[in-house]
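User: Quick sanity check before I run a bigger batch. Here is a single chain. Can you write out its predicted 3D structure?
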Amino acid sequence: MTIDFHAEKNQLSYTGRTADDSWSQRILSLVNPVGKNVVDIGCGGGIYSKAWSGLGAASVTGIDFSQVMVEAAREQCADDPKISFAQGDARETGLPSQCADIVFARALIHHFPEQDLQKFFKEVIRLLAPGGICLIQDRTMDDVKMPASPTHFRGYFFTQYPRLLTIEQTRRPDDTAVQNTMKLAGLELVNKTTLWETRREYASWSELETDLLSRKGRSILHELTDAELKDLVHTIHDHVARQEKWNEQDCWSIWIGSATCGTIKGK
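Assistant: Done. Predicted structure follows.
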């Protein structure tokens, strides 16, 4: 069954790890966040809100439609006064106009039908100050279909259960459609880049096994029964258990756009 982001039992599904240096370095190659005001839409448990603060942002405002997630994020980031959170709709956040130098959204837009994607980017434009930049991180079907490997565990999900690809096909954004929607909303200098992000490093197979069986941070695994999930984990074990370390990587697309003719770093 599909994950319920409002359920208390899933409150910690998107907490418990930190953004990897592979993510941070790619972000820094695209934008300079030092002294900037960042809005993190679809912030989940605050993992990337905390990362933006660590990269030098002056303030980070996390928005999520789930009050359960907002409460988890507040708990996880309670020690950082630069970060605040509020419940809100990504298409109508309720934040002041032109309040953000950077708008970031990770693993969000695949939840939107086309009409909502248009509304979302209109809201992004409203939030961005002149010269502001948005960075949208999500997976296309090309990203999803990257082959399984000893570091790309996610690929085994789809070789074992091809029906999961059908589910992904219905929700994953198309690159051309995303770029066109961004441009129609008024974003300029629109571009896309690919990121292989290290999701997490595991000290032992048992640590990885526990993480997989918990479905933590992997909404697609909620489409499997417990028995199917156990079989999948057994398959992954057969491919990777003999390794000395377990470094999990995922393939992502990052779309970049500017609210005006401001300059995107590295372009």
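Residues 93 and 191 are 25 Å apart (CA to CA).

User: Great, the batch can go ahead then.
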